[in-house]
Amino acid sequence: MARILVAGSIAYDRIMDYGGNFTDSFVPDKLHTLSVSFQVERIKEDFGGVAGNLAYNLKLLGEEPEMLGTAGSDFGRYAEYLQKLGISSASVHIDPSDLTSVAHIVTDRANNQIAAFAMAAGAKPYGPLPEGDFKCAVLGAGCVSDTIAVAAHAKTKGINYYFDPGQAMPAFAADDLKNIISGAAGLFCNDYELGLIEEKTGWNEAALLTQTPLLVVTLGAKGSRISSAEGVIEVAAVPLTKLVDPTGAGDAHRAGFIKGILAGLSLKQCGQLASVVAAYAVENFGTQNHHFTLAEASERYEKAYGEKVGL
């Protein structure tokens, strides 16, 4: 089976819950000297990072992802975990002089999040890019210089790539961001990030669609919006059995959408499958602790949207 090249951060996630609302601790006229502390209710370390989360969900969906990124001297237990899942880490570069990236994520009662991400080894170059037959490439937040390099590599090799700058947005120069978007097979972001993209590039949604044929904007509990030459499609979110943790929902959504594209689904069906996969993610604590089979995902899709889907 042809592989999907998945480029982005590889990290250990330390996820915490805060029982109140962040906004209750902010004094509007004192934000210029902000100093707050939150007492969290639990902390748990999990395997994470954008590349890891995407690869995990794509594997659940029956694809063969190949992770591309840089990890540190403590990557051993992550590598063993990936091996058990059957996910290739052959293209993960190890920098023994530093630690693997780590994310500290605090979620409040309203599902707002505050995160601190230490790039550490993840800021180092990948090294040589892998050769071979790839179905497509997915570029997520990670080392900016390497995101630029992978996009250029994909263009040279004629590989369709999908781009989600995510939390790395502030690190991109405007021209680099525009160059990656131009020629991408699709651009993914949430509604907040869309505003940042528009501000940094000077392109509104209509202008973005002259650079890439597909724009997918996630809207949290309101679902998602898909824009293309076919028009705008609004996709409702899948009803949840419980809301546990939104961390990693965007990565799960993107994996589901790309699986739909590869399966030849319509854009609306791609968005609906993406919402199904995202629902599994938010119903579990952490980014890689949900499980489903293709049969289970298909059944949930049919229950949510009243139609069958061919996976």
TrEMBL record:
One of its GO terms (molecular function) is kinase activity. Keywords: Kinase, Transferase. PROSITE patterns: PFKB_KINASES_2. Coiled coil: none annotated. CDD domains: ribokinase_group_A (cd01942). Residues 21-289 form the Carbohydrate kinase PfkB domain. PANTHER family: RIBOKINASE (PTHR10584:SF166), SUGAR KINASE (PTHR10584). This is Carbohydrate kinase PfkB domain-containing protein.
